[in-house]
Specification:
This protein has 3 helices and 4 strands; from the N terminus they run E-E-H-H-E-H-E. The protein has about 80 residues and is of the alpha+beta class.
Length: about 80
């Protein structure tokens, strides 16, 4: 199964600001905003607001910008 990296932005919206929370996720395909919000509902509730963006990342970008040390335990969207 081919998995890709994505980053999602969680915040109160409607616009992305410096105070929003960004996290790296894995998926077999890119989720829509609504799909990401449902799949990561616990994180959305924890950080408040809604999913405001979903952007694909290369493996290099994911490793450069995020801590992947616990990646084996991450849920995978679309699997």
């Amino acid at each position: 199964m081919n998995e890709n990296y994505y980053e999602i932005c969680i915040g109160p919206g409607p616009f992305i600001t410096d105070t929003d929370f960004w996290m790296c996720i894995r998926g077999t395909r890119q989720p829509s905003l609504e799909e990401a919000e449902q799949f990561y509902a616990e994180d959305v509730q924890k950080f408040g607001g809604n999913v405001l963006a979903v952007n694909q990342l290369s493996a290099q970008e994911a490793g450069d910008f995020y801590d992947l040390s616990n990646e084996a335990n991450w849920p995978v969207f679309g699997s």
